[in-house]
Amino acid sequence: MIGSNEGFVRMRTLQAVVLAIFALIAGRLVYLQLIDTRYEELAKANVLRHVVQYPPRGEVFDRRGEYLVQSRECYDLMVIWSEIDRRGFDTARMSEVLGIPRAKIERELANARMRPRAPRLVANYISKEDKLRFDECNFQGFYTVSRTVRRYPRKIGGNLLGYVSEVTPDMLKRRPEYRPGDYVGIGGVESAYERQLRGEKGVKILEIDTHGAIKGSYMNGRYDSLPEPGRYLVSTIDARLQLLGEELMRGKVGAAVAIEPATGEILMMVSSPTYDPDELVGRERGNNYMRMIGNRRQPIFSRAVRAKYPPGSTFKLVQGLIGLQEGVLRPSDLHSCHMGYQAGRLKMACHAHSSPLDLRYAVATSCNAYFCYVFRDILDNPRYGSVKEGFDVWKSYVESFGFGRQLGSDFLDERDGYVPDRDFYDRRYRGSWNSLTVLSLSIGQGELGCTPLQLANLAAILANRGYYYIPHIVKRIEGQDSLDRRFYERHYTKVEPRHFEPIVEGMWRGVNVGGTSTMARLEGLDVCGKTGTAENPHGRDHSTFLSFAPKDNPRIAVSVYVENGGFGASAALPIASLLEEYYLTDTIRRPALLEYVKNMQIHYPIYDR
User: Fold this and answer.
1) Alpha helices of 59-218 — where are they, by DSSP H?
2) Residue 352 in contact with residue 538, Cβ under 8 Å?
3) Contact assessment for residue 189 and residue 160, using Cβ atoms and an 8 Å cutoff
4) Are 364 and 515 in contact (CB under 8 A)?
5) Helices 91-98 and 128-137 sit at what angle, rounded to 10 degrees?
6) CA 486 → CA 161, 472, 489, 490, 499, distances in Å?
7) Buried b vs exposed e over 8-32: b needs ≥16 C-beta within 10 Å?
8) What Å distances lie between residue 568 and 81, 295, 444, 560, 565, CA to CA?
9) DSSP reduced 3-state for 156
10) Are strands 474-477 and 233-235 parallel, antiparallel or unpaired?
């Protein structure tokens, strides 16, 4: 009896366990079918279309509130191969409606067939008018995605502003945040402020029937996300000055940069030749880009921040400042110049002027011999153990003026120029060299290389008597109280402010009393300037000029560099002077000089052969 009772209990227990398991399974099934809708939603995923919502890109204004860059509406044409009508598809009709080559449509359809359920881009830059005609045709399996493209109303500042293009496969590898189909900034402001300008994408989920027709928004848009528009930028550029600068530099190769000394804000930045950024928007952008790349004068190349030019005689200002700070030069020191400087068999030629001369007059007349003496005194200073140690001291001064390194501007492609070090000369001369060996550095020649931005920054340093703010192109960003803190910090050279006065006085005399810069004189504006002529191994000398005005409380510092332009006063000076006149007075009162610059013919055998 006891054994049979135990068996009965076991059987009842097993039955209870089995019933409990079945109850749990049944309960779970009821829950999944009647209460939990997640699996229903997953099933619907097979008939849902996730459409990316692209944000409008932020617009760019000049410092006066004028549009430099705007966005306009356009569309991408997408296809999902599995939703195309199997009874046939008329590619000729679509080509006619949208103006897209039939071969391109067929090529993209062949690519789409490889992944039949994935959206595939067929064409972009579809206009609003073409999109309306497309909608009337009801091409099954095709749909459009709204987005914006750039418009440049003033058609200026190609290198300055940059352009927007689709991401390339190489970009996708380097930038994981990018996705196929994204448009991103290339060069200039568009690239430097990509994160602020592009905004954040959203998504819209649509229900699609078995024929590919849109039934409506899924779950009334519960899972949609709205795009966040990009932020607008107020740039530091004066559009009127930029336009004039590009007109004056047309037909020439070089760059012109203007800076507000009190802030480091870039008022104008011209690279010449430049390009119309609108040419890199739309369906012809590829052909236009290849045409620009094939141009030997390189309009895509941003000379203002990337070119490496010898500074020529403008660099004498730096030599004089270093000599004053080092105590090897006094403003009253006299040096003789008899058509140049000579030491043994070495001669550095100079032009005719009175002799002997002091520092101020040497700056005004751009005397080569004077600054040969100064440079040698810096390197041969007995305070240092050798010429090489003196050279190291000289180099550290030069770098404090922003040469031989990037200034830290907001241009991502800014280059650092070049200032040679002692190791360079040790390798070249096998360790045996002295101040005469490197004498060409005294007048800004030899191995020195500077960007036009660095030369404009030198003009700003002189205007401020010893310091600068990092040059930058953006004045304000929507939604931000301030810019990066580095743009508000003063950067001092290693030369005390008191030593700038005789140099500035020499620059003023060169314009307003007598010297190489008298053409830059503007009545009542106290312009200070310095010409430069840089040797060019590929033809006629380069012409350069740096200036600021007024002498006290300066409002503009400018540097112009014209390849093959000849003397500094021949090409660069009149361009810089007209820019200063227009910025400070809102007009140009020297029409003859304006016509002279516009009609100037410069030959470039190295580019045009």
Assistant:
1) 91-98, 102-112, 128-137, 158-161, 169-174, 188-192, 194-198
2) no
3) yes
4) yes
5) 150
6) 21, 10, 5, 9, 26
7) eeeeeeeeeeeeeeeeeeeeeeeee
8) 64, 27, 13, 9, 8
9) coil
10) antiparallel
Name the token pair of 508: 């003023």
C-beta neighbour count of 595 within 10 angstroms:
10
Instruction: Let me know if 243 is exposed, middle or buried by CB neighbors in 10 A (0-12, 13-18, 19+).
Output: middle
**What is the spatial distance between Cα 129 and Cα 98, in angstroms, rounded to a whole number?**
9
Helix (H) or strand (E) holding 154: none
Residue 282, by phi and psi: left (phi above 0), alpha (psi -120 to 50) or beta? left
> Element (H or E) spanning 491, and its range?
strand 490-492
Place of tokens 């949208």: 98
Decide: 366 and 515 in contact? Cβ < 8 Å.
yes
SS (H, E, C) 397-451: HHHHCCCCCCCCCCCCCCCCCECCCHHHHHHHHCCCCCCCCCHHHHHCCCCCEEC
User: Which pTM was predicted?
Assistant: 0.87
Spatial separation of the C-alpha atoms in residues 527 and 549, rounded to whole Å? 5
Task: Report mean pLDDT in 10-residue bins for the chain, 609 residues.
Answer: 58 66 63 54 59 89 96 89 78 89 90 86 88 88 86 90 84 77 87 92 80 73 86 97 97 97 98 88 77 86 96 97 97 94 88 93 96 97 95 98 96 95 96 95 96 98 98 95 92 98 98 96 97 92 98 98 96 98 97 96 89
Strands 202-208 and 48-53: antiparallel
Beta bridge partners of 467: 492
φ/ψ of 31, rounded to 5, equals -65, -45
Pairing of strands 265-272, 254-260: antiparallel
The span from the CA of 311 to the CA of 544, in Å, is 8
Are 330 and 434 contacting, i.e. CB atoms less than 8 angstroms apart? no
Q: Map residue 575 onto helix, strand or coil.
A: helix
Residue type, 589: R
First-to-last alpha carbon distance for the chain, in angstroms, is 119
Dist. CA 44–CA 460, nearest whole Å: 65
Sign, CA dihedral 364-368-373-378, equals positive
Which residues contact residue 181 at a Cβ distance below 8 angstroms, ignoring those fewer than 6 apart? Answer: 52, 76, 121, 166, 167
Integer Cα distance of 295 and 310 in angstroms? 24
